[in-house]
Design goal:
This protein is an alpha/beta fold. It folds into two domains: 6-179 and 350-369, 3-Layer(aba) Sandwich (Rossmann fold), CATH 3.40.50.2000; 187-338, 3-Layer(aba) Sandwich (Rossmann fold), CATH 3.40.50.2000. The chain contains 16 helices and 13 strands. The mean pLDDT is 92.
Length: 371
């Protein structure tokens, strides 16, 4: 007798996806301990982020199973990168024929995985479906819209995401699962408190420093925008309340070209691992970022956030007062810092069990589809 099982290939390629995949992989492992209908997961790493600080360390630290398949598709234009991924992912899917392809978020890896699977008639499950910035100038927006329209199962973190899909005519297969990043913040936040030494390493006191990240092309590739942001940071940074700025490789390259240097108050540091980043987020006075994930994590940790963009997918964080949209102009950034709104509690992101719901929904859909 052949034991029934559900075969999944999970496609990841960028730092936030590693964190989300870690939580879902843990839910799979827990399910398989006490279930006669196991979920067999293989991880395909596209290599979209090839810096060791931004991939291998996450697999090791967060307990994600090592990739079964590893590609080398980082670098180049969006078209070139996505094309290489499509070719290589298709080969793997043809050889292994999973029951589902699981993709996360809004990267080129997400789009390539969804396209390759859909063209081979393999169902696509999209974690973090339904997000919209309504800014088609962002490559991430194109990726998420196309992926949603290719997906069979769409796991939405919030009610707003569900409504966004409904407005585009997508109703079937939509599940409000909650946010796996909230699961991760709860799970790994406790681990970070016990194991991270980043605060002592950097000689930081809780709520006595600002944290900044900038990585989106709209900011890094526009010298006017990046210069305005840096002018604001220089003005904000004080000896008794420095700005800690972990540098994304893209941002570091541009800042080197602009000859932007660190000082004692504006401290440019190498990228930090996920647990260290959680500690910095939890203990910062305020976070300034253009990262979608960090906007949410700031809210999870009850740390005020200033978003260095003109729009956000995470409108719940704005409504709850934990987040403000500042754009890139120095005056706007400083105004937001000095005029923070009243914050309220937010329950939009679930109960910390989004990953369990995702796995149970996949199993239910698989069984129903074959009954």
């Amino acid at each position: 007798m052949i034991m029934q099982q559900l075969k999944i290939i999970t496609i990841v390629g960028a730092r936030p996806q590693f964190v989300k995949a870690a939580i879902v992989s843990r839910a799979i492992i827990n399910h398989n301990r006490n279930n006669l209908f196991p979920v067999i997961e293989s991880i395909l790493h596209t290599g979209q982020h090839y810096d060791d600080n931004m991939n291998a360390v996450f697999f090791n630290q967060l307990g994600i199973p090592q990739p079964t398949f590893s590609l080398d598709c980082g670098g180049g234009s969006h078209a070139a990168m996505t094309a290489r991924m499509l070719i290589e992912i298709e080969k793997i899917l043809l050889e292994n024929r999973p029951d589902y392809v699981l993709v996360y978020g809004d990267t080129n890896s997400t789009l390539a995985g969804a396209l390759a699977a859909a063209k081979l008639h393999i169902p696509v499950a999209h974690v973090e479906a339904g997000l919209r910035s309504f800014n088609r100038q962002m490559p991430e927006e194109i990726n998420r819209v196309v992926t949603d329209h290719l997906s069979t199962l769409l796991f939405c973190p919030t009610s707003v995401a569900v409504n966004n899909l409904k407005n585009e005519g997508i109703i079937d297969g939509v599940v409000r699962s909650g946010d796996v990043m909230y699961d991760a913040a709860l799970t790994f936040g406790k681990i970070a408190e016990q194991s991270s030494t980043i605060l002592s390493d950097l000689q930081l006191d809780t709520k006595q420093f600002y944290l900044c990240t900038v990585h989106r092309a709209e900011n890094t590739d526009d010298h006017k925008r990046l210069s305005q942001i840096m002018q604001a940071l220089i003005e904000i940074a004080k000896p008794d309340c420095p700005v800690i700025f972990p540098l994304h490789p893209r941002t570091k390259k541009i800042m080197d070209e602009l000859s932007i240097r660190a000082d004692k108050s504006l401290r440019l540091i190498e990228p930090v691992d996920y647990l260290d980043m959680l500690m910095l987020e939890k203990h910062a006075k305020t976070i300034l970022t253009d990262s979608g994930g960090i906007q949410k994590e700031a809210c999870f940790h009850r740390t005020p956030c200033i978003t260095l963009r003109d729009e956000t997918e995470w409108v719940e964080t704005i409504a709850a007062g934990w987040n403000q949209l500042a754009g890139y102009q120095k005056e706007n950034i400083l105004h937001c810092l000095l005029n923070q709104p009243q914050q309220t509690e937010i329950e939009e992101y679930g109960d910390g069990h989004a990953a369990d719901k995702i796995i149970q929904t996949l199993l239910h859909h698989y069984k129903t589809d074959r009954s």
